[in-house]
Amino acid sequence: MKTSHLRAWIFVHKWTSLISTLFLFMLCVTGLPLIFHEEIDAAFSDTAPLAASPVEALDDGTLLSFDAVLQTALAERPDERPLYMSFDIDEPVANVTTGKTAAVPDSEMSFFPIDRRYGEVVAPELAEEQSVMDFILRLHVDLLMGLPGMLFLGLMGFLFVVATISGIVLYAPFMARLRFGEIRRDRSARVKWTDYHNLIGIVTLAWALVVGTTGVINTLADPLTEIWQASELDTGTIANSGTAYTGKLASIDSALETARQEAPGQIIQFIAFPGVAYSNDQDMAIFLQGETELTRNMLTVVLINAATGKLEAVQEMPWYMKALLYSQPLHFGDYGGLPMKILWAIFDLALIFLLGSGLYLWKRKWTKRTVDLTETE
């Protein structure tokens, strides 16, 4: 590699790393507990788990209908409208999210897990309190600043990806005279830290690129969802019956049965009611997912007119939404259960060391340069 090219890559690696380091530290520290968010929530939950119930039992006629479930939730918040309904697979629980308007922020939504055996709200305090994990998630996702924070972190993630790629380019000429993984312990502290930095960097290379790239994609969730809603879910792009939604919903149970018939062999994930980001102004959008770990993010959307209950359309997710839906669990290592989460946590700690060692090396070099300049004056 020419000297001029090498210097250019060194410049790119140094400044993309330095600019993004502080925010990457924050993302690594907050990301560590988020990897185990399900385990942490379960450990600190005050709610006793319900007895497990096979999925088939949800339709045997002995449980509260989903229409009644919605009415139970709305009775708790008569001044709010339904936004979402989701379903527990292993427990006879339906979760209803409500808000004063369809555009209400997450912090102002009300959440009601309802036990379908008794028609009772489970742990209603969850609708009032924000957990520590919710705060950590918001800090990790958008710095508590909403979309501007998400886009800023996306820029930092992009710089991190560039820093990783430039590190790959610099690794080959640097290690040309050394064995892989060699640590020169008989040299100065700066040389040893450089060797450790390069070793950790190359070992975590694939993981860093995956997490960095998926992180950048995740920060585009809101814009991508808006594009999808306008281009794919908008009633102007499908053969909608045109019956306007005035606030009175058709039967949810009938809508769910229609969705099952249109997408056999898939599991119903959640319902987005009219007006929210994942639906349009007059349809219930019923989302169904695959049954395996690999296909659970392959979503199918069944649009049911909210006023009439008529089937309007069955849609596959566009490629950019599939990329988003796959990147979200991959970012936190949610594909392979606890072993993969532990591996993700180890890599996360390694990245913290990588960032710290890089900052130390820059500080040592800067201090040495300052001393040299002082001595020459």
Automatic annotation (TrEMBL):
Keywords recorded for this protein, A-Z: Membrane, Transmembrane, Transmembrane helix
Keyword DNA damage: no
Pfam families assigned: PepSY_TM (PF03929)
Membrane spanning stretches: 12-36, 150-175, 196-217, 342-362
InterPro entries given in the database record: PepSY-ass_TM
Name of the protein: PepSY domain-containing protein
Superkingdom as given in the UniProt entry: Bacteria
Keyword Hydrolase annotated: no
